C-alpha cells in the first residue's frame, strides 16, 4: 500500500491554491486535506486536520507565513513546512529558516519539483540545494556578530568524529542518500546521525545545522 502524505496549502491567492490542489491531487501518494488563505487560518486547520506537510506562502494578510511557521514549530509534533517564495528577492527567508522551515520553493517551480519537495520534507530531509544553502548562509553572515565563527566551533565540539563528517555533508546541502554514498553508510545510519545532530546542536532542521557548519568555516 502507498503511504499517503497529507498536505495543507496556505496561500492568500485562490488561484495558486486551486492550481496546487489540482496538481497534487493527481499523485497517488499525496492528499490535499485542506486550504487556508492566511497563516492564522492555516494554524487552525493544522490543529483540525493534522497534515504531514504544509505549503506556506510568506506574504499573507492577518498572519504571514513566517509567523505561522514559527508558531507551528513551537508545537510538540509540528508538520514539515515548505515555504513558497520568490527566494532571491525575499530576505525574509532567513527568518523562515530560524523559525524552522524545512524547504523553500519558488512559485514558478515545475510541478514535478514541487511534488519531489513535498516527498523530501515528509521523509525528514530539508529541501535546499547546495547553492541555496550557501546563499542563505552568506546573507546571514553578512549581518552576524563577529564572534559567530568561534561560537559555532564551540558548538561542534559535542559531536563525534563521524557526526562531524555527517554535519559537514549536511552543510554542503547533501541529501541522506548522497551522504550515505559518500561516507559508505546505510541510509538508516545517516538518518540516525542527523537526528543526533539536531539534538546536540539544538537545531530544528538541517538548514540550521548547515549554518553552524558554515559559520565554523568547515564548508
Describe this entry's structure for a reader.
With 219 residues, the chain is an alpha/beta fold. The protein has two domains: 5-127, Rossmann fold (3-Layer(aba) Sandwich), CATH 3.40.50; 143-215, Winged helix-like DNA-binding domain superfamily/Winged helix DNA-binding domain (Arc Repressor Mutant, subunit A, Orthogonal Bundle). It is built from eleven helices and five strands, in the order βαβαβαβαβααααααα. Helix 3 (65-72) links the parallel strand 3 and strand 4. Helix 7 (148-156) packs across helix 11 (206-215). The longest helix is centred in the C-terminal third of the chain and has 14 residues, at 187-200.
Q: Return the average pLDDT rounded to an integer.
A: 84
Secondary-structure-derived class: alpha/beta
CATH class of the largest domain: Alpha Beta
CATH architectural arrangement of the largest domain:
3-Layer(aba) Sandwich
Number of domains: 2
| C-alpha termini separation | 41 Å
Q: Can you tell me the CATH superfamily of the largest domain?
A: Response regulator
Strand numbers in spatial order across the main sheet: 2-1-3-4-5
Low-confidence segments: none
CATH topology of the largest domain: Rossmann fold
SSE series: EHEHEHEHEHHHHHHH
Radius of gyration: 17 Å
Oligomer: single chain
> What kind of sheet is the major sheet?
5 strands, parallel
Helical fraction: 40-55%
